[in-house]
Amino acid sequence: MTLDQAPSLDVDPLIDDPTTRIIVCCGAGGVGKTTTAAALGLRAAERGRKVVVLTIDPARRLAQSMGIDSLDNTPRQVKDLDGDGGGGELHAMMLDMKRTFDEIVEAHADPERAEAILNNPFYQSLSAGFAGTQEYMAMEKLGQLRARDEWDLIVVDTPPSRSALDFLDAPKNLGSFLDGKFIRVLMAPAKVGGRAGMKFLNVGMSVMTGTLGKLLGGQFLKDVQTFVAAMDTMFGGFRTRADATYRLLQAPGTAFLVVAAPERDALREAAYFVERLAAEEMPLAGLVLNRVHGSGAARLSAERALAAAENLAEPRIVDQGAGKEELRNSPDSTASSPTPAGSPTSADDPEAQQPSEAQQLAAGLLRLHAERMQLLAREQRTRDRFTALHPEVPVTEVAALPGDVHDLAGLRDIGDRLASGDRPAGAA
Amino acid sequence: MSRLQVVSGKGGTGKTTVAAALALALAAEGKRTLLVEVEGRQGIAQLFEAEALPYEERKIAVAPGGGEVFALAIDAELALLDYLQMFYRLGSAGRALKKLGAVDFATTIAPGVRDVLLTGKACEAVRRKDKKGRYVYDHVVMDAPPTGRITRFLNVNDEVAGLARIGPIHNQAQAVMRVLKSPETAVHLVTLLEEMPVQETVDGIAELREAGLPVGRVLVNMVRPSVLDVPVPTDVRRTELAKALSGAGLGGARKGGLAEQLVDPLLAQAAEYEERVALERGQRGLLAELGLPVHELELLTEGIDLAGLFRLAAELRKQGVA
After folding, report:
1. Which stretches are annotated as coiled coil (chain B) (predicted)?
2. Which of A160, A208, A365 sits opposite B11 (nearest CB)?
3. Torsion sign over Cα B292, B298, B299, B303
4. ipTM
């Protein structure tokens, strides 16, 4: 109904396309990212693809909805898929940061060194997940899954970051730290200041490590140094892999889906994300707009519904000329609106001054409808704002459900809604 | 009333809004509160329709009765340089550290340092006194990280005190922990009447309690008003309903008439509504079992603006939250 209608996002061609290898779902917290990822994964699997869903969100309910008691760091196969023997499979896993980090250490250091690292207190804190680690490990895991080449589609949802952008920065951040100057200084101050002309720097360094020692406590600094020394062999690898994963995300086989709800903040974040993806040359497939409301009676406006409800709820004057009087009171209706065949009041017990049960119910239903129509209008406004900013972004809409998803059937239902992309009836 | 009030909640529940309303409510009647942001999103500035906040305490609103709300967006990097300057007078060395990447390292990668600085700054504001020995702020309200991270965030000082076993960081971490675990602090969780946020709230409270952190209240945000005061009878008589609608001037009641055509979609909407209300009732029951004060804040349908914020603050006062 708007002039600048956004193009619609066709989910099925995207998930059916064998060249689509990675789908990343990103967006603000609380918009149904994880559920969207799971529903997409299920749909793709039931259409014949071999899919793994990597989730960051430790929502037990989601695991249960896929018939798995608890998800862990290893992909588990989801049973009871529909699909007509198309050979599709669905696996699901939940990122375990610490386990992923440990695996990297074990894979890239000899056993003795690996043990030294794993026992280091600094490492233990770092790997258990402070700022940035989760984002980095999500990328690392994605890289690993892709490298194993066991699945032809990986669907991943992004960590619940402070901002949706953090995970794009994480690999670069961690990578650049780990082979940055600072680490070198911590490891071997003497080497950095080795050249004659650099002597002054050397003095500066020892002042600095001295300061850090004072600030953090000598033992802490020693732990860090031990850690860094032990990880030395892995540094190059970290950086290389971070870069590789980043490039993987830019590659044509990757598709980003920005997930949002038709609310101001969520769509603001979505717009921001769209811009960021463009700046990073990451391929955006489109916007998934969750929890969109519709109405089967959309042509009845909120104003008319409210006026009619008021009309119904008023106590009647008994001898009123029934229907006609009411018609005059009600706002101008559709021209074709036929005259009611006998007003309910005329059928009422003549002494009843209060609205009948049916009238009270009708009034309630109309107020409920008015609320729904107001919600629709608000959703429309926020959506229009997004479309005005990014008319090029294809959109698919998913109708709001009253409750959460609890089983595969629920996920399948969401998948159907995702794919049909139909605006719920009445959503303008 | 606790002097440090930490507000957390699942993403999307409106914890920043509730934190801001709480700061306003606590500032009423001539009090002074500080609203602290730790996640660098400038959500507070947006709410108060102000310019992005710098790293300095700045008056952002005047509460009813003359109280004042100050706001501070804590920047971990600047907090660290501040700290180095305060304890070590490290003006130029601080800059050199920054150049080397040491400050970045400390504030983003080094385990917990960032969180220590953020909680440390908030606790410093709680304890700060003026020359006459009075507290500078009657209350400090923190817009904290989400429920999934809150226990770790607040408890980080314990961990850091263990890692840095001596030195000022160790002492600082211990001092912060003393404030956070005292009755001076209360951690509130914001939720919606939906399954996942309620589940996270229940889990989050268990974690906080296990860590010995003082849990305050549960604030249920965006509660939708009850609209349908008459339940839909199971044997709803569609023809009468059609007649009632028709009587209200909405078209014909006969089959195919405009009023008659409304019956099915309106009943479908009512069924959805009742399903949602039943779900909400279940969630309320779960929250009631927590044994904490639970408060409900109505949904402001037109979004949150300054006026809405003041309304929420008034509501919080009415309910005795502030």
Report:
1. none
2. A160
3. negative
4. 0.84
